[in-house]
Each structure stands twice: as C-alpha cells, then as structure tokens.
Amino acid sequence: MKKENILIVDDEKNILKSLEGILLDEGYNINKADNGLKALELLETVRPKLVLLDIWLPGKDGIEVLKEIKSKYPLIQVIVISGHGSIETSVKAIKLGAFDFIEKPFSLEKVMITVNQAMKTQTNCRKNNKIQKTNRRTKIDKDIESKINFLKKLDSSSSHEKKLTKTRAIKNNNSIKEREQAWEKEFILEQLKKYRWNPEKVAGELGITKSQFKQKLVYHQIKLSKPGRIKEKNQRTLQRSVVLCGQGLHSGIKTGLILSPLPPHSGIVFEDISTGETVKAHIDNVASTKYATTLEKNYTSIKTIEHIMAVLHMYRISNLLIKIGDEVPIMDGSARDFCELIEDGGIEEQMISLEEIVIDKEYCIKKNGRSIRIMPSKKFEVKYQFNSDGPIKEQKFVYSHRGKESFKNEIAPARTFGFLKEYEKLEELGLASGGRLSNVILLDDEKVINTNLRFPEELARHKILDIIGDFYLLGKPVRGCIVACMTGHAENIALLKDIRNNVMV
Ligand SMILES: [Zn+2]
Questions:
Q1: What is the C-alpha to C-alpha distance for residues 93 and 325, in angstroms, rounded to an integer?
Q2: Which residues are catalytic?
C-alpha cells in the first residue's frame, strides 16, 4: 500500500526527530523542513496529506506558511504546534483553517490521536478502503507494535507528559503485569472506537472469541452501551480540541480555555496550563464556595467552574480535559458561549455506558431560612425561588430537563448577578475585577441598575445554572428533583456531600 506523506515543519531538531520516529512507526512517509521557505518548497514536490507546522519559525513564521498552504491547497490538513499557553495564536490558526493545534510540550500520544483524526478527515471523501482481512490483521499487529514503542518512549519522556490522564494509570502501576493490563484496557478502548463500538468485530480482529472478549470487558470494567440505547446514556467527549478566550470574573485576568477529548472513564479533568498539574472535577476537590466554586489540589486551584460544569452536565460530556489558566473566563456572565464551544468541538459518542446517580430518597439542607433538597424523580428537574424583601423580591423558575436544547434556551443565557454593596466589598477583597458592567447584572437596594434582563426571572434561572454545575461534581449526571430557596454554592456543596456519603461508596 502506498504510504501517505506527512510534512513536519519545526526548527527544533529534537522535535523533528521525535515526531518523525512516532509517525514512521505508524507507517507514514515523512518529510521535514526546519524553516517556512523550505516547507513551501517541499509542499510543491511532495504534496503531503498533512502538515505538522510549528508557529515560531525563523524567517517566514508558521501563520504565514499556514495562510499560503490554505490558499494554494485547501484540502491539505494542517496541525499547528504552538508555544506553551499561547492560546490566541492557536485560535488564530484555527480561524485560518488549521485542523487542530498541539501545545508544546506535547505528548506523543496526543500527536497520534490528532494526526489520526486529521488523516481520517482527509480520507473520508475518498473511496472506502477495502483492505483484505489479512492486511488488517497485519495492521493490528503493527498497532500493537507501535503502541509498545510508544509506551517505551513515554517512559523516557518528561514528567509533565506523564501527568496526562491516559498515561497516569500506567505510571502508577509498577509491575510489568500491571502495566500490560493498563495498556490492554487502553488498547481495547481504542479498538472499540475504531470499529464503531462493535464488540464482535473487535473480537474478530483480535483473533479471540466473542466470549473471551466479553470476559476481557468485564475484567477491565468496560461496560458497553446496548445497541439502540438512547444517546444520553453513553459516555461522551468532544470530537476535537476547541479554544475560548475571555476574562476571569474574580481575578480580572485575561484567561482562556482549551477543551480536549479524553478516553472513556477519564471524567472531567482541569489542568493548570502553566504547571501541567491536574485537578479532577469532583466534590472531594472543592476548596471554596465563596461567590463561586473553586477546586483545589496540592497547590493548584481552579476558580469559577460552575457555569462550564453546568453545560457539561446537561450536554452529558463525561470525559474532557479542560486546560485553563487559574479561572474559567466569565464571558457574558452566562453559559451561552460554553454551549457554543461544545457544539463547535462536536460531540463524540463513546458507546460506553454512562452511569447516573439516581436519587433514592429525600436529602435536605436547611439553615437560616435557606433550604435545598433533592427528591427521587424520573427526570432531572430544578426549582428555585427567591423570597426576600430585598431587591429581587419574589422570583422563581422551574427547569425540567428535556435534552440539551431546553438547557441551552432556558438556563444557559441567564447571567451572573451581584449587589452593588457586595460588589464594592468584592473589589476591596481584590475579587470581581473582571466583573465589568457587561458581564454581571448589578442590583442596588431596589432594582437592576445596569442592564435589561433577558428573562423576567433571569436571576432564579442563573441560580439553577449554578446548581446544575455544582451537582456535576458528583462525577456523574444526577437524576432527581431539586428544590431550592435562597441558597448558594455553600448549600449546594453541603447537600452534595450528604448525597455522596449516602448514595456512593
Ligand atoms: Zn453563577
């Protein structure tokens, strides 16, 4: 079979060498250039299917090269390699037509996933490749071989790369047997994805019987979804990485997000973009509930996670890496941009069962006129009510979840709000620096003073948004009916802890 050409453009010799190594193992034909001009010359002669392009190049920079490639050969896929944390450049590259981007320092694993996705997109329009079964067999053997090579390489790579979720299991297991098992699980999951979650096909390709394969699934605790099962019951991730830039509400610092796909059973993982430290979005890692929900592990803290978590909860995204610089950007104070971001990335059905937390009895937190309770219910529902003599007066809303569209229309657009009095206090504390008039609904003692409300009960809807986000910190979607009155993050988290102690092991 004719090998497909990939052009790698980078001025760092080590990067050229490691990328070449892993892609040769995968069976690609590799051409290399260490500057932009040479890359454009090679483009004419080798006509690659894919270009891996560094942004920072001597002479003609990567963005210029990308522009030329896309104007001359729009069908060539380009994966941009960008400097650590340079989100804006990555956004620019994606806007110019790059397929995806990889940040330095990158993991070879991430490179492989992205390259394979780009190649798949490239060849989708071409005829279906009818490879003989024997050839496929060889390909599987080759996959195993390259995986082993890859694991060896991972072993010698930097400690930062080892923190990536997929390799974490492998790193923590010391014996050869444990490593093999961790690898086997990853391999089975990848093969399942490749063969569209068809267990018979994968068993056949691996040369084992259906029942032997079933035993492997049970052993690795991989629970496949039943065919025809409604989509919301599958684990999900994104089809490709996406980026979003904005400002932190509390820190006021320019910040951004990079969302990247993760394999089944990974969960929602936040990663501090500057240190590479990860924190799982889980109730055990909640450090503060003052004005926003903050996660913390070791010395890494991630602030204001509730709005994006609400979107992930209602879109049923179960596995995702969220790279971030300290605080989730506030955007317009609502979750609308996060919905669009998820839709931009595309939802990948992982066909592995997603378990829900089904509420079995009533749980309740009551204190100083505030209350929140959750009761068993067939569907997910949240009711919120204000009843004070303050500026909000009576305001209530009932959200009944009927799929992501209902969330997107009824809850996601509701913005954060704050009181003028508190706002002054927040500023004294150095918080709310990003809370300019455009992304917070401000109230004085009597009324809203800076904007027209998007809904008459926008504030109650926003409280529901916060509840939905906090409730995803149990790690699984919740099924139950939540009724809350005058509560905030502190009560949400207290109730979650109560549920966690009773429902979960
Ligand atoms: Zn909020």
A1: 20
A2: 489
